Amino acid sequence: MNATERMCALRAQIEAANTQYYVLDAPTLPDAEYDRLFRELQTLEAEYPDLVTADSPTQRVGAKAARGFSSVIHRVPMLSLANAFSNAEVIAFDRRLSEALAGARLADAEIEYVCEPKFDGLAVSILYRNGLLVQGATRGDGETGEDVTENLRTIRAIPLRLPLDNPPAELEVRGEVLMMRHDFERINQEALARGEKPFVNPRNAAAGSLRQLDSRVTAARRLSFFAYGVGVVQGTDLPETQAGQMAWLASLHFPLAHERRVVQGVDGLLDYFVWLGVQRASMPYDIDGAVYKVNAIAAQTVLGFVSRAPRFAIAHKYPAQEELTVVEGIDVQVGRTGVLTPVARLKPVFVGGVTVTNATLHNADEVAKKDVRVGDTVIVRRAGDVIPEVVGVLLERRPMRDLLEAISPAFVMPTQCPVCAASVLRIEGEVAVRCSNGLACPAQRKQAIRHFAQRRAMDIEGLGDKLIDQLVESAYVGTPADLYRLDVATLVRLDRIGEKSAENLIAAIAASRGRPLSRFLFALGIRHVGEETAKALARHFGSLDALLTASIEQMSAVVDVGSVVAASIAVFMVEPHNRAVIEALRGVWTDGEPQARKAGGLARKVFVLTGTLPNLSREEAKSLIEAAGGKVTGSVSKKTDFVVVGAEAGSKLSKAHELGLTVLDEHELKRMLEETG
Ligand code: 5U1
Questions:
Q1: Rg of the chain over CA atoms, in angstroms?
Q2: Could you read off the pLDDT of 633-673 as tens digits, one per residue?
Q3: Ligand 1 pocket, residues with Cβ under 6 angstroms
Q4: Any catalytic annotation for residue 64?
Q5: pTM for this structure?
Q6: 634-669: string of b/e by CB count within 10 Å (b at 16+)?
Q7: How many angstroms does the Cα of residue 276 sit away from the middle of ligand 1?
Q8: Cα(263)–Cα(313) distance, integer angstroms
């Protein structure tokens, strides 16, 4: 192979790896191998500069800094979308369209729509001439944007050349540039390590990164891209549906949201909105709603545009997840393990669908870094079910600094527990500080009971926070074991507890007897023992007594349990107070772990999920498999029993074929679950 051939092969191999990694979510090359190929190509190109091509992966990062961005006029304007903030507005949208299309004899039944996430990023346009990426631009005001070609070229998810033998003379692909949450965390950590101010959210980070004059900086930020449409097209015919056009873009190696769906009618839209809302928290990037588009392009053409927005599409927005409010105080809360957490008391603000009055400030270092003071205007964020947090301070809104220094000095972590006044310890190597009083501290006691009773642990219905506070403060309950000694006569002595509620609570406590060992182990609140670890321990040891007599080595041998977890369990179990509580709780848990409903069914079968299943989310499929006794892992190996595939399955499917594994689709999985159930 001569140098030209080798360079050509390397380029193809590197771009294929980029597509696998960034577009198909299915990496094929280890990072070290990718870097080795990349360096080999760089060396060859340095030796033969005349053979460097514009679409070479080495050319994604321009070496020199630009002076400024020139303007790009959008030949097809980049429109914005009308917004719907309620179901009623979506229903009105569908009705408007149905009437307009019925008039044009294009719809007599329900309208077919394409639904996709509304990315919380920046809209861009990418122009390919004869298959080569020649220009990239921001949306700007929709008519004129900025030329960010060099920066867009650094995004590895964007093809530099279209994989077509006869590419169209011109193709403009539109979509959104965004930053994945994990990349956001990483660049913020790097910024903090350099003593710089972190970005407030992934969208700001993506915007700041895309508008860098030096594309090397953009490259280091690792932006992502998702396509959602086309602009100028010359020299090819496009499919006649929106979904068809999207599938065509996917075949050209453009990344598309996995959460795309085709639905029927307004019910389909509203169901999709709820479904996407559930996916939202576990998606790797931020979205702020769903976008609905009429699927048939002929119908889109008939519907046309109204002012600056297409009439055939709408963005259905989730309630805002970030809002501004004022800090009214900084309290310190004591958690289950005694950790002291500063919490901002806020002027109530509606964010992410709920009224927020408190937001975590994490720890003293975070408060110092963000320099949050009483009286400050702050950005509060609530993502999914996550505890609201203070993202940052709007320093420009801070009252005069000197004045503030006098009335609201910088926050200092107390040296005594704010609840029991015991001394506070800072553990070596940890940012957190802890109350030294253990379960003698009422705050820790309350949290331990809360943890024990929660739905995922012993699931004691009706034992809410207020009641736990009352029970602990009245000294009726000091440990979880005391719950099982309560009676109606004792409960009715508490304020605001009637006979009926007391009876219900006693019944709920009784109903929690007999929960499986895994739930009980999780309920004990041993450090580092989460639900999955508790399940693994229960499966392995079968009984609590077997675990109590196990050595650290025997515990470490359990999958999912390392030496740190094993040591933590051992420390918990030798503590006399903990042993006494466990002894007092005998009879409350049931040894053994529920297995697959039919012996030999899916028990211990190992599944891998890949691609998007038509009706089940990954989480749903995982819990169904686990409920039937199976296990879901992330990578395909000889130990895998079944690979469940959906749309756009990547290299895991090829690997399954290579290893001769059994491949199932969603339908077959459901049948298997039914048969073993
Ligand atoms: N996901 C998505 N976002 N977004 C924004 N699709 C989409 N489509 C758009 C815009 C402005 O416009 C087309 C409907 C023209």
A1: 29
A2: 888 888 888 888 887 777 787 788 777 777 888 887 887 87
A3: 79-81, 116, 118-119, 123, 228-229, 291, 293, 310, 313
A4: no
A5: 0.55
A6: eebeeebebbbbbebbbbbbebbeeeebebbebeeb
A7: 17
A8: 14
